[in-house]
Amino acid sequence: MFPRRRKEKRDDQKAEPLPERLPRHVAIIMDGNGRWALRRGLPRAAGHRAGVEALREVVKACLEWGIQILTVYAFSTENWKRPRSEVEALMNLLVEYLEREVRELHEQGVQIRAIGRLHELPPEARQKLQQAMQTTAGNGRLVLNLALNYGGRAELVDACAALVKDVEAGKLRAEEVREDTLERYLYTAGLPDPDLLIRAAGEMRLSNFLLWQAAYTELWVTSTLWPDFRREDLLAALEDYARRERRFGGLK
Ligand code: FPP
Questions:
Q1: CA-wise closest residue to 234 among 34, 5, 44, 63
Q2: How far is the CA of 147 from the centre of ligand 1 (A)?
Q3: Relative to the CA of 76, which ligand 1 atom is closest?
């Protein structure tokens, strides 16, 4: 479903030597926007806006380097606890991002997907998102998977509820439930687990991100705040990943 592709290069761009073994699926916790803004005496929303620029650069690098899936944590189920003005700023940024970027992303072969309790997003964000997903559904160069109103625990609860419903309806028997059965009920159904999870801004935790899917994901944490994250940082993560030995609980 996701064939390995060669990395592509444009003539006008500096050639970075890429590691041979690249992750297929990269997930990112884009943390540190608030601290970035605070250090500059700017409102937190300015940090989020600068974070969108970093995202843009990372998407570009993923396209260029042949990464197939990029999942980014844009809004968590816990982020509703922030001041209303910040929540609104984030939702407006999402709308603005989709309005401004979808056409180019579509031309570049990006498929936009989303994971989370999307039905709880404000109507305008939900509608733009649906539109973006519909427009780009046939693309296969890069999946840009936006985690919006996403929580790993909420995802597991939603998956269990849907599974139980199917058992009650006689579509599934309890004895048939295995790991791959539950996986079919996750928001990420059909996507491979992330190979590499990058966290910006130094915190050493998962923060309720991809709890099931990250069981064997390689973690890479940088102290760089997300708005300062550039393709060099992504490359450093990819180089580190290429040196890791993945055993998935087995032996070498
Ligand atoms: C965490 O930083 C970041 C977020 C809660 C939002 C991330 C969103 C973006 C980068 C932009 C929006 C994305 C799209 C797709 C338009 P923080 O505010 O918790 O930082 P802090 O820990 O320094 O306060």
A1: 63
A2: 12
A3: 5
pLDDT digit string, tens, across residues 130-147: 999 999 999 999 999 999
Given 3-state DSSP classes, what are the helix, strand and coil percentages for the chain, each rounded to the nearest 5?
45, 15, 40
Q: How far apart are CA 192 and CA 61, in angstroms?
A: 20
234 CB contacts (<8 Å, ≥6 apart)? 26, 58, 61, 62, 198
Q: What are phi and psi of 26, to 5 degrees?
A: -110, 135
Side by side, the strands of the sheet bearing 142-150 are 110-115, 142-150, 69-76, 25-29, 196-199, 218-221
Verify whether residue 79 is a known catalytic residue: yes
Q: Determine if ligand 1 sits within 6 Å of the CB of residue 93.
A: yes
Q: What is the pTM of this model?
A: 0.94
Q: Find the catalytic residue in 11, 12, 33, 79.
A: 79
**Closest C-alpha among 129, 110, 111, 109 to residue 119:** 129
User: Which pLDDT tens digit goes with each residue over 179-209?
Assistant: 999 999 999 999 999 999 999 999 999 999 9
Domain ranges of the chain: 25-151+194-242
Distance between CA atoms of residues 158 and 28, nearest Å: 22
The highest-level CATH class for domain 25-151+194-242 is: alpha beta
Residues 135, 106: Cα–Cα separation, whole Å:
7
Ligand 1 atom closest to 54 (CA)? 10
